[in-house]
Here is the input.
Amino acid sequence: MSTTTPPQTNREQPEVLLVEDDLATSRLVEEAFAEVNERTSLHVTQDGVDALDFLYQRGNHASAPKPNLVLLDLGLPRKNGKSVLKELKETTTLSHIPVVVFSDSTAEQDVDDAYTLGANAYVRKPGHFPDILTVVEDINDFWLTAVRQPQ
Here is the structure.
């Protein structure tokens, strides 16, 4: 007699850091995660410096959780997404965190640079909620459900 167990997420409450300077996009991604996986705790930072403070748990983010996943826009103020990605992947204590570049750029150079710097995936940021919902479902199903990550 065999039993089937449902897929397990990496944590009871997955932690996702969205690094996005566009407030409208942030709101749509928040709505999509609320619909797809209400247990996901979505944290939003609006620039590269604040994102690194969150990841290093310093300043206003001293009690921030380590995310299971980072969704990273490239066009950020103060410190661009490529610089954030480079630093994150060069830091031993952070390098294991999967990073999905979430950008509206279609430039092949941006895609190449993102992978060269250590991005785990590059997803073109959709402009409409139904498409964002589909992307968030795919990200949730793969990165927060199917993939086993180190603790």
User: Anything to note?
Assistant: The two ends are 32 Å apart (CA to CA). The chain has five helices and five strands. The CA atoms of residues 30 and 51 lie 17 Å apart.
